Amino acid sequence: MKMAVIFSKAKTKMLAIALAVLICTATLFGVSLWLKDKKTNITNIGIQQTEIGDMAFVENHLVVGTSSVSAQNSVYALDTETGNTVWTLSVQSYVRKIKVFGGCIAVALENNSVLMLDENGTLLSESKFLYPVMDLDYDEANGVLAVAGSVSQATNAIFVINGFDKTKDYGENEYSYYVSSNVYPIGVAVAKDGVYFAGSNSKVYRCTSSGRASILFESRYTQNTFFTANGYFVLGYVNGLVDVYQKSESNSEYVLAESFSLGKKEVLLAHQKNTDVFCAAEKGGKLGFYSLKTLNCTAKGNGETLIIRLATGGDNTAAMLKNNAFVFVDEAYLTSSKLFGVAFIPATVMFALAVIWTVYCVARLVPKHGEMVEAYVATLRKDIWRDRKCYLMLIPAFVFMAVFVFYPILQGFLIAFQDYVPGVRAEWVGLDNFASVFQNNYFWGSMKNMLWLLVTDLLKALIPPFILAECIIAMTSKRSQYAARVLMYIPGILPGLAGTLIWTSGILGAEGVLSQLLNAMGFHQFEGFNWLGNNSTALGGLIMIGFPWVGSYIILYGALMSVPGEYYDAAKLDGFNWVQRMLFIDVPMIRPQLKYIFVLSFIGSIQDFQRVYMTTGGAFGTNIPSLEIYYNINTFNNYGVAAAMGVFLFIIIFIPTLMSMRVKSQD
Amino acid sequence: MNKSVKRISCLLLSLGMGFAVACGNGGGGEGGAPSGALKGTITIALPLTTQEEQVMNAVANAYMDYNPFVTVSVDVKGAADYKDWLSQTLTETDMNKVTMDIVKNNEVSQYYGSNKFVDFSQYLGETNNYYDGQIWEETMDGAAYTANGANGQVYSLNFETTQVLIYYNKDLLTEAGVTAEEITDWDKFVEACEKIAALGDAYTPIAISGDRLSFWSGQLSWLFRVYVDQYFRSVTDAVHTRQGDWNFDPLKDADWEYKPNASDWVDVYSDPEEAFYAAANNDRNGYNKNELRLLEGVMTDKWGQNDPRYKDMLTNFLRVFPQYVGSGFGADTQDTAMTPFWNGTAGFTIMTTDLLNEWQKRESTNFELGVMDFFPMLDNTTYAGGTPDINYTRSIGGAHGYYGVVNKNAEQTKLCMDFIKFWTSKEGQEVAFAKRKELNFLLTGKPLINGLDIPAEINLLGDVKLRGIADSNPATYFARGLGNEGNSTRAFQENTQQLFAGTIDVETYGANMSKAHKDYMSFYLESRGFRANALDDVTRYPF
Description:
The complex is a heterodimer of chains A (667) and B (543).
Chain A: H1 2-36, E1 45-46, E2 52-58, E3 61-66, E4 74-79, E5 85-90, E6 95-101, E7 104-109, E8 113-118, E9 123-128, E10 133-139, E11 144-152, E12 155-162, E13 177-181, E14 185-191, E15 194-199, E16 203-207, E17 213-218, E18 223-229, E19 232-237, E20 241-247, E21 254-261, E22 267-271, E23 277-282, E24 287-291, E25 297-301, E26 318-322, E27 325-329, H2 331-365, H3 369-386, H4 388-415, E28 418-421, E29 425-428, H5 432-438, H6 441-474, H7 478-493, H8 496-507, H9 513-520, H10 538-544, H11 553-561, H12 565-573, H13 578-589, H14 591-607, H15 610-615, H16 625-634, H17 639-666
Antiparallel strand pairs in A: 1-27, 2-3, 3-4, 4-5, 6-7, 7-8, 8-9, 10-11, 11-12, 12-13, 14-15, 15-16, 16-17, 18-19, 19-20, 20-21, 22-23, 23-24, 24-25, 26-27, 28-29
Helix pairs in contact in A: 1-2, 2-3, 4-17, 5-17, 6-11, 6-14, 14-17, 16-17
Chain B: H1 3-14, E1 40-46, H2 50-66, E2 70-76, H3 82-89, E3 102-104, E4 127-128, E5 134-135, E6 160-169, H4 170-175, H5 186-197, E7 204-207, H6 212-217, H7 219-231, H8 235-238, H9 272-280, H10 291-299, H11 308-317, H12 334-343, E8 346-352, H13 354-361, E9 369-372, E10 396-400, E11 403-405, H14 410-423, H15 426-439, H16 486-501, H17 506-519, H18 521-527
Parallel strand pairs in B: 1-2, 1-3, 7-8
Antiparallel strand pairs in B: 3-11, 4-5, 6-8, 6-9, 6-10
């Protein structure tokens, strides 16, 4: 009794410790989650418009331009504190670009226009350009407006207006000069010493008033975005890198001053004129603030950035657009996001372990059951320790399986939920791929063919080999047995693909043996008949391939050889004939082998697409789901949909396999 | 030149195909090659035949003579699994880790627009120092750098040419009482097929494959594109970009006029032949198309397989298919389907000019080969409104090569561009010609490089002038599936196979295909990088 009380106290003490640990880890876990969404001075503004053209900050307002087909497009300003709309201006076309220059807002529309607004949304002027405007820059102090226009990747121009008056309308031919270019301008910039643009190649150009573009310098990768400030050229590439170029003091050439990586996708940049801060992000990924003075990162964190803009004055506030909501971030947000990234996984693991431990401690205190739990855990621990060498030796196998088997399966499963193009993108799309599979008539329509082939494949794999094996066993002459075995094994040496090709053209083709034989027998309607090129016979032709389906007779022959002769003697005494002996003695005795062949044939039949691919290509009503998966990967490039189809097939294969395993374990 | 080739040459000339390729002006003299300060390695990974490999190596060696610090290696890949190999290699996230630099990229178009390949359009304005310092794009015919990205990007350079032609067995035609000159239209062609079929069961009027590949990118694909162009030529005008459209170029599109008939050009060209070629090539230059207008027309059944013109075309096809094609049609591969032609028991076949090289290799082939252009179809009056838009056919084929550069980094791109500039220079081409001459390896068409002097020994086709390009008609986008979109192309293949097998009729075919195009439009828009709602306003920038 005393021992029980002491024991109970020890248990209670351990539970108390477990609870304490649980509380600590839960707190840590909660803090890590809290860090994820900790946004300082943030207003989340949900918006109704489905498509945003662009946005920009003006003082404490966020100016948004819409680019919607279904609604009247407009430019409107939102209060960043309250989210209220401050002013709205309807526009006649889709908004492509919004830029803020001092107190004026420039709005580029798709109808080749540039609107100049004051900070209250009052229209000051509307200018027309020859090409749709992709980007623009305005040096208000010197009155220079530069506009990058583009019809297509190879038809572009930079239009420059010197002495630009923001209150005056300009016609499409009223520019000071323009530079025609094959190179697509990813951005244009007006600096004190000239007008520059960066191409979607790897070059930065300087525009000259004679209408020519000269190469200022060449960068390292394909450029995606750029700006120039304080003598620096900041270039964002398509591969997630950002380079900062600076003029060399020695020879006046531009040299690489700093470089950093944000990830692997396209870079987005944001900068406000006359500030030393800029913001850089990987599209859909990380985001950071950088100083143009030190070329250092001041804050960096996770985000799902689609558009970024810096607030006026460069007070480190950027806006990201995600799921049609504006999210304002600053350095504090990024710091907390970074901490979340560091803390989340260890906190989750510790919390999970603490939960398990606590559950165990609680379970130990439950009367009667507690002892059972304790005994179970103790036995498990003892077993593991006793067989520790086996466990250790199994570890490498499991590690390799995890890497080469389980990981690809898991990856395939995840791809089923993604819009996936290898090496390009992997974006989560929820159940869209499964919805596509449900709507895919080819996939479900081909199920019928799969079932036909499956049933016949199973019959072909089990019955003819069994009968042949029995026939060989029944032979009294050992030499004849040997000869029959060898002759029947020869087709198995032939590579499967070669066999299929022989059947395709040599036997079932228009000039094949079957048609010729039938023609010779007087069935002239089959002359030149292609059995695999006709809707009514193609599936039957596929089933015929491999006739007489000797298949895995050697396994069954081996199994039959091991059936004890006493059973046959007993059967003879009981008056069994040959068929009865096969059914009531041989079949039960070789059941494991039959089951093995059944499972392999079942999986093989469902997975095998080569037979159909090499013969009919799925035409003439012979498509099957595995071929549909192949086409979705190799022809349609629908990797996600193919993976979702794979999940369905996995379920189809897995259920009978599981049932088979269960039957086996019962045996 | 061997005997059989001489016979082909005579025929070509006798058929009056000796016109000059409509390339630009000449390029001037030699000189101006760079000094060779470049360093690095270029790996060309292409599916080449043995002869092509030798030609490629000759060009690479000549380039390395100029640039001793550059190594150009030719890595020959198997044609059959080239697409799979390339697709697999392109899954690498960091392209600097892959070895290949120059590849054939037309079959991996899913990677266009993903920065895996360099956009040539951004480099064509540079000078080519291997070709007298001329602007690079001015040294080539425009067809060499046709945009294949949705916004005018050029991911492949195609400076070689081929042409799909109709080949015939002159001896067999004579035996059947047919002369090639008689076959001036589809009706006459059907008559010729009847006569060949009447010779006996051993003879096949047309050796053509009807397997999957034939519909997707082979013989039947060519046939459909040629005749869709004839029936739907006016689509070029309907989808011509207009003022207010997202890709309207006032300097280019404002003056373009739809003038598809020779009669439209008689005031410009007094020579009827010149006027004809001007009409046939009316849409090759000075013309931007708004692809969204084309797709909108497909969605609203303004044109497509449900159109009486398409149905009229199908009715003409059904006079030939399946009765005059080989018994294995539907399942036979192109090689198998061609067997009767090589054996001398088939009257006609359709093939690229590569057939001429194949012909050279087959010394045992013992019939006289003839070549002709596609003949026009006539309105068979089955469907009201089913009259073809024009009364002639245009060429199919044209530019090919599909050489793309893997986008690694600026330095490597510069190196690759330098090599390709050499390859496309007069000198680079002359090196290739010399090697071809040595190997007796014929050109399948005149390269699209200006100012070349092609040795007669390898220039079997002479100065054949392209009768326009059928594929420059946007209507060919719906000739089969929607462009190369997989699902709709498969629907085209299956429905056409059923139509030819008599399982469905033309009306059902039209309805099925119209539905398929609508069902799979979203896939097509995505494959082009267009917004899902791009068709809501076709004037709008669709990216």
